[in-house]
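# step 3/5: fold
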Amino acid sequence: MQMVDLKNQYLRIKDEIDNAIKEVTDSCKFINGPQVREFAEDLAAYTGAKYVIPVANGTDALQISLMALGLKPGDEVIVPSFTYIASAEVIALLNLVPVMVDVNYDSFNTTAENFERAITRKTKAFIPVHLFGQSCDMGKIMELAREYKIPVIEDNAQSLGAECLTDSGRKHTGTIGTMGCTSFFPSKNLGCMGDGGAIMTNDYTLAERVRIIASHGQTVKYYHDIVGCNSRLDTLQAAILKVKLKYLDQYAQARQKAAAIYDKGLAGVKGITLPKRMPFSTHVFNQYTLKVHDGKRNGLKDFLNRNGIPSMIYYPRPLQRQQAFRGIVRTGEMLDVSEQLCQEVLSLPMHTELDESTQNFIIEKVREYAEQQ
């Protein structure tokens, strides 16, 4: 049993993937081949973003987006404390100040209210993270951003394909803020066979600046207007993603079906809270994350492991307590929810190939553990 079954997902579309790879190897256009542009166009059409710029990975997408805003050392960027380190790591790398705020206990995501409490005259950007497959309340966050004239970079690495209800209708996550960033790490809902990422925006000027930054700061080869970096999606990965994008909605539906089976089978289990769906967002379940109460989380994890069931803790320590950020982070408030979640969260296997018999076994063992307590 695996947390994510990539092999069987590949085998379902093996011929298409293999043909796409062969097309690239036959052409030997491994860098900036036509498939990179074609995939960017396809992803733009799927999400509704005007511009999509593929890059090397999701962390690069975040860093380049911040670089494109032209922030200065000492400027503050507000980010949730309960998330993967990349969301805050890029802030520190650019000599900016990560300002960490708490999240909502039900959704795992931060809120406009949390952002607002942390705003100072030095605040130059918000990074809302759409965690585990569900959107932040982007309608309220964008309302706040417009009021304070603060740009918003959506971290959409875990929620590509989700939609959020805003004042202007349903929109894909990653297309609502100033820029949106995503990752194509293999375990993501849209994953390649290596590293990959992309930046989305509806702003032409920002899109062009992102392209320049990601290409060594050059508009013409060997003529460098600004200091940039080297970040690109290689052609093989673009070709693979171009195929898999056609199945992204099917993948989301498979994950949603699996989540519904977990919900039904685990309903009423003592000491466990199931994932909550927020009314303003769809959920594409990059993870299916329980909250296990009363200090029983690690015990459940160990029990599942002894029964051959993998599980993961996303995340065991909030960002403000990571050694890497010691002395360089500001916290805008008490981060009690993040601290509590780090002690309670446990993610069960979740992927497109989950079968009901496997899920029933997982459910049986979770229930067995709970009954023993």
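# step 4/5: annotate
The mean pLDDT is 96.
# step 5/5: archive (pending)
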